[in-house]
Predict the 3D structure of the following.
Amino acid sequence: MSYRIAIDIGGTFTDGVIENAATGEVRLAKRLTTQTDPGEALADVVDDLLAAIAQVNGSAGPAGAVSEVVHGSTLVTNALIERKGARTALIATAGTADVIDIGREVRYDLYDLDIQMPKPLVAREHRFELPERVAADGVILAAPDQAGIKAVIEKLRQSGAQSVAVSFLHSCVNPENEIRVGDAVRAVLPDIAISLSSRVAREIREYERTTTATANAFVQPIVAKYLNELSARLRQAGIDAPLRIMVSSGGSTSAEIAAEVPITALESGPAGGVLSAANAGRAAGFDDVLAFDMGGTTAKICTVLAGVPSVVHSFEAARVRRFKKGSGLPLLITSIDLIEIGAGGGSIARISDLGLLTVGPDSAAADPGPACYGRGGESATVTDADLTLGYLNAGFFLGGRMALDVPAADRALQRLGDRLSLMSLDVAKGIFKVVNEAMAAAARVHIAEKAQDPRRFTMVATGGAGPVHAVEIARKLRVPRVLFPIAAGTGSCLGFLAAPLRVDRSWSKPQGLETVDWQEIEATLAELKREAELELSSALTSPAEVAWQILVEMRYVGQGANLSISFPWRSVSPAFATELDAAFRKAYETNYGGVLPAGSLEVVTWRIVGATRQDIKRFVWPDSAKSSEASPKARRAIFCTQADKMADVPVYDRYALGGGTRLRGPLILEESESTIVVPIEADVEVLNDLSVLIHLKAES
């Protein structure tokens, strides 16, 4: 018997799942995240998981039977936001060291006279220039000489830098000069971490590529240290199994690769939530889903079509204004295309300058946490409102392991109420309505930008707070169904366990479609595939089927935005140009309603993606043979949104209900890690795998 473990460190809670690899049976653990040392909560979660299995088996913990550990965390994100990374240097082509200051010269807010732009991660005194030059077509016009390299390395040594990024002009087309300098630095300063832009982001756009390389260098030493400490903690627990790290693209990779290119793990937790939703949707027969993951700090929303989450190849991190597009560091990484809203269980409510109730984006996080946690927090939060509205059971939070302080929540809400001339209950209703409308509004925009109709989707809710708010948000969006998979409160972990191994490679060389050098393209793609195969093989613990894709980013000559066209892996040749032309024009017409008949096409970036086969992962809840005869365990007054009043509703033990059970809302379904709230009239169905499906009545 073997087991797989998944652990997700979030802003408020650290979640864990252990899966019996043979049966799919899962058990859960959840602890408050320890902000000063996240590994402490992680170690506690691992101990809890092993103890749960030991208790079932009646024997010692099964640490030796753990075959794999998959992990995601907010470490990279937090390091960039808090600017708590390594002392980083930059080696750039002579005359280009200030590209990370100049940026795009675009103001993200035209009317803000005191606008703040994101500061570069490398101080001016730690940027060193080197005479060298590669032409836009990849021809080396000037190679760096030994004297210049030696001088730069000496400056690097004197700077005390712990990490260095190397980013040369046009190195995405030909990385030879970068590789040469990187090898020279490694030979003289073996203890310094090195990030080559041609390894981290081999794509055009000098500002974005250099920023990505510096961000990778900034977090590389701390991630390597963290992963070493994590491996040591796992060994102390008796686990000697491969460690896989979740990456933003929706796949996972080996710890060694993650330590080399840690920037790819920037959005590891949110990616797990989307994969969990996609997997649960497919298991229930729904391929088009709206993934909704709401935790303690933020809420994430993503569209999944035909079982596949949409993916983008750029991302913004460490925004000066957290949810203001353009105010962050642009990174060229492959990431699941989701929107993030400052609306989690810990989001703080306050009164705006206009005297209006607002919620978020800042969060009380785990320390001090919401007022009801009893850890010193005094600000009213979404969790305090949920508790006051009857949605949470003060004595059964985390299965009774953590009692909630109802009077403390009431006091925090009443402090806001005193300023609004409202009672605490009315403030709680306002917080619930405001935060739900904020999430629904963001989802509307996201869905519209994808040219989709929300009525085609099934919402899949995960995260500790997701099941509390999902039904009401779906009602606002007119989404007809909401699915709650088992263990929804630890959804990201289930996504980690369902994730394929994945590797992405890219190469930019803009050229007209009619002038493409197909021999060069074929040779380059073959080289990239060999690199990717080596990376995959380092992460595979057993032989696996790998599917390969070619993605081609194209545009009309003169345009600035690209369209991505995908094909199964194949040998490319001049005949491929006709296929590319037809595929691009079809995609362009689909997106924009027409084509430019006389427009010439340009190929900008080639990508290859390799991923292990992703079958539907069916997780099993322990002791799942239940009765379809439903009996509530209690009744509780909750805020019913349709009636706009408090009313007594039945409360059920979710996992006491068997497949085939049918109920009618409003009602509450309680479980240890989250609570499903149905505050409206709706049909409730328990599926055979104990997932819960809510059928919402269409509203005019």
Notes: The radius of gyration is 26 Å. Residues 206-236 form the longest helix (31 residues).
